[in-house]
Write a structure and sequence with these properties.
CATH class: Alpha Beta
Largest sheet: 9 strands, mixed
Number of helices: 12
Helix content: 25-40%
CATH topology: UDP-N-acetylmuramoyl-L-alanine:D-glutamate ligase
Order of helices and strands: EEEHEEHEEEHEHHEHHEHHEEEEHHH
Structural class: alpha/beta
Radius of gyration: 19 Å
Oligomer: single chain
Distance between the termini: 43 Å
Number of domains: 1
CATH superfamily: Ribokinase
Shape: globular
Number of strands: 15
Length: about 375
């Protein structure tokens, strides 16, 4: 069962560790033909903390690395608008051309109809990738200031040779101080391609998983990052039954008895803008565990799917932090993820009132 620290004893409800990039969005066009882009901030682990702060009103801090130059200050300015505390950001001196450290860039087009979304990353040697063991005072964060929940993920772990050790360092310190931990597998082929592919991903993520309380992912994540196959899965996952994912989770929980919960998002892709969206949650009750199936959004209209999983994670964590039942927690996650995919950008623009309205059956009629 989950034992979450009392908010009165902690400075932070949520602390996230990860890379934050500048996202360049060509709107309705294509990256390869664009002449202008909308710029925003985003990053798998950061998006969770930002969602918990902006939508759910939780006290959030982020740990990352940023270079001291005007591009880094642009990123900082965007982060300040998101409201996540930046006191634990590590700033790196800039070498003049980004040979040693830089801000990662992510060019992302949303996709439409039969054309899927496309992400092109330009992120090598980012500030976050330069973080090493000993660079962050985790005792200050988890013991002195106090945190209720710590979140990180597989994107950060894949950035460099040093980042997996930083993840483990942080997770160990969090556990020593009674902080709940979550990890989103977030497998990205582009990050692992040149450093060993799925074999390397599984080697690293299997070690990290030993220190995680709540593991989050989708069907590809659990397969590519941990090596657990989902029976009957294909390139087009439409029609895969929840029962198949339950069988996979049964294997995962045996391999990792430390998991207090496992959350699996389920997405059937009809077109880039038409998805079925739901989730499955397993919670360890000490007697084999209990499964919870979320509310399902059939034929959800998607404006921008990037960040939907991160918003699911923030809604799920909000549910646990707020003392909701597991069923309520997974429903908050799915509803928040659904709303986040109706707006552009990686980060959620939803409010708690909107999330709870969706869960209460609110429709899409105009409000005035």
């Amino acid at each position: 069962m989950m034992k979450i620290r009392d908010e009165k004893d902690c400075r932070w409800d949520i602390v996230s560790l990860g890379e934050i990039m500048l996202r360049f969005d060509p709107g309705e066009g294509r990256v390869k033909t664009a002449r202008s882009f909308r710029v925003s901030e985003g990053g798998g682990e950061y998006n969770v903390a930002r969602g918990l702060h902006r939508c759910f009103g939780k006290r959030a801090a982020v740990v990352t690395g940023i270079p001291r130059n005007d591009v880094g200050y642009l990123l900082e300015d965007l982060l300040k608008q998101g409201g996540v505390d930046l006191r634990h950001v590590k700033w790196f001196d800039y070498d003049g051309i980004g040979r040693n450290v830089r801000v990662g860039l992510n060019f992302t087009e949303r996709g439409f109809g039969i054309r899927g979304a496309l992400g092109v990353s330009d992120r090598a040697n980012s500030g976050a990738a330069k973080l090493k063991v000993g660079a962050i005072d985790w005792n200050q964060i988890f013991k002195v200031e106090g945190a209720r929940w710590f979140h990180t993920g597989g994107i950060f772990a894949a950035l460099s040779d040093t980042t997996p050790d930083v993840v483990i360092e942080a997770l160990k310190c969090a556990k020593e101080n009674g902080v709940m931990t979550s990890y989103d597998l977030n497998y990205r082929p582009s990050l692992w391609k040149a450093i060993g592919g799925t074999e390397k991903s599984q080697q690293i993520n299997r070690e990290i998983a030993k220190y995680v309380d709540v593991m989050i992912g989708n069907e590809e994540d659990f397969s590519a990052a941990l090596g657990f196959e989902v029976e009957g899965i294909s390139e087009n996952i439409t029609g895969i039954e929840t029962a198949s994912f339950k069988k996979m989770i049964e294997k995962v929980k045996v391999a990792y008895p430390n998991f207090k919960a496992i959350a699996n998002t389920l997405r059937d892709v009809h077109t880039a803008n038409d998805n079925d969206w739901s989730a499955l949650l397993w919670v360890n009750d000490g007697q084999g565990g209990v499964f919870y199936e979320s509310t399902k959004f059939n034929h959800l209209d998607i404006m921008d799917r990037v960040g939907g999983g991160d918003s699911f994670a923030s809604g799920l964590i909000y549910g646990f932090l707020s003392g909701k039942t597991p069923q309520e927690a997974v429903n908050y996650g799915v509803a928040h993820g659904a709303l986040a995919m109706t707006t552009p950008g990686d980060t959620s623009m939803a409010s708690l009132k909107e999330v709870e309205g969706i869960l209460a059956g609110a429709g899409a009629r105009v409000q005035r």
